[in-house]
Amino acid sequence: MTDRELFAKLKILIVDDSAEMRSVLAALCESMGVGAILSASSGEQGLKLFCAEAPDLIITDGSMRPMDGYELTRSVRSGECREDGTESCDRDVPVLMISGHVGPEMVRLARDNGVTDYIGKPITAAVLYERILAAVSKPIHIVETKAYRGPSPTRRLVPRISDTFSE
Amino acid sequence: MNDAQSPEVPARFLRLPSIAERKLGADFTAPVRLDPRVLDQMQETIRELTAKYSENLKAQVGSLFSFVEPTGAGEPDARNQLYSMAHEIRGLAGTFGYPTVGRFAHSLCAYLENYKPVVSTVLRFHVEAMYDALQQGGGDEILASETLASLDRLIALTHDGERSAG
């Protein structure tokens, strides 16, 4: 089984308020051979598409208005889609956040809201490929309490930053 | 500390099959390295998009100048536009071979995030640094680091330790 055969079976949702960034991410996913690529320009639109299309992976920007990537992730993890009757939505879906803010506060915020992995801007082909592959090929470890469900909020989340740029 | 971290709150730990296992069956084994053919194809895509992006970037940086004075004068729309464009440049310039332009855009975004009001001189120096780096075909990393250090000193002198926008 090659990576391409795996990617061909994937449905990826890209959420970013920058049309240019959406277009670049979609082009890169297409060149990886991803089977279905969905795009949304806001957190709200992203959540609607998530509920309607049940993607296998979400790639989201952090800063968007009014609903940002953190709130989008929290909404996905809450399982509210299922309450709307969409049983196929996976609240444990891997969420990759791409953000220009790679300081510890924002990374911690992402982790506490249930983000799976955090990629610092600017992205490179290698980092994007590596993180998508990791997100879909590793078992998903979930912690569930009364008030939280998602990747462990006590784990150490390290932003992946390309070697061309660091804060 | 949230509930999942609190020792008093009962927690369940679940290990769910990977997306790949669900798609391809339980005998799926994760690859040990990236497929160079896929990576080549992605890098080819970046090369194809670079020419168009370079033109867009020149236009974007050129138009940043028009927001400098209004932003320094406190016009919120200009400030939002300037931030939005710098944010876009920060996100993509490095991907397309302009890492120094991206670094200056990152510094400009950080300045706008952390200070209110902002000073036109600081904004203009950032935009000029981006413009110069573009004129030099992407700029020099060592020179960029020195320029960024100078911009940091300028910000510190101009704002005298304040950090008010939050």
Automatic annotation (TrEMBL), chain A:
Pfam family, one: Response_reg
InterPro entries assigned to the protein according to its UniProt record, in alphabetical order: Bact_response_regulator (IPR050595), CheY-like_superfamily (IPR011006), Sig_transdc_resp-reg_receiver (IPR001789)
Listed SMART domains: REC
Keywords, alphabetical: Phosphoprotein, Two-component regulatory system
GO terms (BP aspect): phosphorelay signal transduction system
Record flagged with keyword Phosphoprotein: yes
Domain of life: Bacteria
Positions of modified residues (4-aspartylphosphate): D61
Record-annotated Response regulatory domain positions: 11-136
PANTHER family linked: PROTEIN PILG (PTHR44591:SF14), STRESS RESPONSE REGULATOR PROTEIN 1 (PTHR44591)
Name listed for the protein in its UniProt record: Response regulator
Species name: Parvibaculum sedimenti
TrEMBL record, chain B:
All residue ranges annotated as the HPt domain in the record: 40-136
GO biological process: phosphorelay signal transduction system
Gene Ontology MF term list: protein kinase activity
Keywords carried by this UniProt record: Two-component regulatory system
Pfam families, per database record: Hpt
Keyword Magnesium belongs to the record: no
Entry-linked InterPro entries: HPT_dom_sf (IPR036641), Sig_transdc_His_kin_Hpt_dom (IPR008207)
Stated name of the protein: HPt domain-containing protein
Originating organism: Parvibaculum sedimenti
